[in-house]
């Protein structure tokens, strides 16, 4: 009668998932989202001002699949001056879309979100960059910057990675991590990094991290850090110069992505974007001199797809 | 590093909780809510039309306490004619309001919601009914009807329970359950049940279940079944006759409670209600001939209080 709910920790999740499985799953989910085969309700949000914390609950479902997910993520950043470190916690509940039964809890501490974000960035960057693009400029020095580069390198060769971070120690540390993964990398100025063939920005910036004038013709730029209205990584002028703009979710990117900043600045039209998932299905026909931009704000249906795939591996 | 998240099933939860503990916790939480010491964000909602199902996610926090909760509840009612039975599932995540750490999952399958709903109904009914009220009219024959009566009987003597249900078999079955709990009960017509000293309605009705003219002076009525705008248990005329109206949450009851129906019908003023929690702190000074009404739509902060209290017992 009261069977215990299966709970899987990060160790089990890491064992069950391969980068290939994550990439394939996220690819299919982005296509499903672009084709309107997903259901993503408005998220639930709570603030904890006394501890500088917040809690987001996001749900998602790919409408022709067996399970949906409810994901809880908390970020607590400590009171200024309290010396309290930042905390991030999270779990994903996998729930049957046929019976409502809760199948399992993936106590992933945000791992699946990091994976699907990195996979989406790598997939879209690979699909939109010209085939001859070889160098990568990375803005930001966190876990996402590392994952994006490593997974993009699974999809195409990278000859050089230029890492730009505000903190030189963090940039050097990321380069060391990239070396461990067999990738050539060195710290660079924002201008140098912006001169790469491919650019991925993974920062929590609230003002553009690069100058559009430093971006050369033929470059592809993917922004993944802007997930709230007050954040902004990519300058509106970059969207103005772009010949192809992709968004993972039009409404979301208009509301709180870099695309929205560019539209509100009058740099591009509100209907100038196409769904990133469509480019994964049919690669774009892009001139070698075109600048292309992808704005990825994160789609809840990807959580559902990835959590279901991981759970399948864990319980098969 | 990857400690397993504690999960507690209904068996453990039932062992940890006593009706006294639930009543005390819910009483304090209703008072906290009335005094503005709670945080309850708009819920997340998802529909699954292909299986006639839905999923609600509700969060709540009593702002001077250590934990908040995120509650997931699903109701899947089967396709009409599919012969598939209804399913209800649910769990409660207890999360630290200081660090965001997920402390435990209470895999309660909706038990805590049933308890806090019953406790709120019993507490408010007891506080608002005149001291000499002895008979109880119960509308509805489900688990909530049973719990409401049993817990009200813990707070004050009940000389007779008249049970009204649309299905006579269900009404008889509930009377048998009430007998097992030492309570005198018998099936009755709506008119008979409406003539009781105290009335509690626990139905999913979409039209009033009783005639206001059948309610005598000095009666207290508590409605707990109306939790969506299209539902309606209590007639507007009852609110018009009432000298005291209480709501567990003014905004919520206005939006999707019986109180809202009465206001929109012009039967009572939009500001005619007082917070139920205040009546638990300071019992109302009510004439013996007054009709009093409580509209309870369910407050998310009660989940937080009850789940925390249960978890304390489970882990202390």
TrEMBL record, chains A, B:
Name the Pfam families on file.
Answer: OCD_Mu_crystall
- Kindly give the SUPFAM superfamilies that the UniProt entry links to this protein: NAD(P)-binding Rossmann-fold domains
InterPro entries documented for this protein: NAD(P)-bd_dom_sf (IPR036291), ODC_Mu_crystall (IPR003462), ODC_N (IPR023401)
Protein name in UniProt: Ornithine cyclodeaminase family protein
Species the sequence originates in? Streptomyces virginiae
């Amino acid at each position: 009668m009261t069977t215990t709910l299966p709970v899987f920790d990060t160790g089990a999740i890491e064992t069950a998932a391969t980068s290939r499985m994550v990439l394939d799953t996220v690819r299919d989910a982005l296509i499903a989202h672009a084709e309107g085969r997903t259901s993503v309700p408005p998220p639930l949000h709570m603030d904890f001002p006394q501890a500088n914390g917040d809690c987001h609950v996001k749900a998602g479902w790919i409408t022709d699949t067996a399970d949906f997910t409810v994901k809880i993520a908390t970020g607590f950043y400590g009171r200024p001056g309290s010396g309290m470190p930042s905390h991030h916690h999270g779990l994903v509940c996998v729930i049957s879309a046929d019976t409502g039964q809760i199948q399992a809890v993936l106590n992933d501490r945000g791992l699946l979100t990091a994976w699907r974000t990195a996979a989406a960035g790598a997939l879209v960057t690979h699909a939109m960059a010209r085939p001859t693009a070889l160098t990568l400029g990375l803005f930001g020095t966190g876990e996402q910057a590392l994952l994006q580069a490593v997974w993009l390198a699974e999809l195409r060769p990278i000859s050089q990675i230029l890492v730009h971070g505000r903190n030189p120690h963090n940039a050097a540390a990321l380069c060391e991590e990239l070396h461990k993964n067999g990738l050539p990398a060195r710290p660079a100025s924002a201008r140098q990094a912006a001169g790469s063939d491919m650019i991925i920005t993974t920062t929590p910036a609230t003002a553009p991290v690069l100058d559009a004038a430093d971006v050369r013709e033929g470059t592809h730029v993917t922004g993944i850090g802007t997930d709230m209205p007050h954040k902004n990584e990519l300058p509106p002028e970059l969207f103005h110069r772009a010949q192809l703009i992709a968004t993972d979710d039009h409404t979301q990117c208009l509301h709180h992505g870099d695309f929205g900043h560019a539209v509100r600045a009058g740099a591009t039209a509100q209907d100038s974007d196409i769904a990133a998932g469509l480019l994964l299905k049919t690669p774009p026909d892009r001139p070698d001199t075109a600048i292309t931009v992808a704005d990825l704000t994160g789609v809840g249906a990807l959580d559902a797809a990835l959590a279901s795939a991981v759970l399948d591996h864990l319980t098969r």
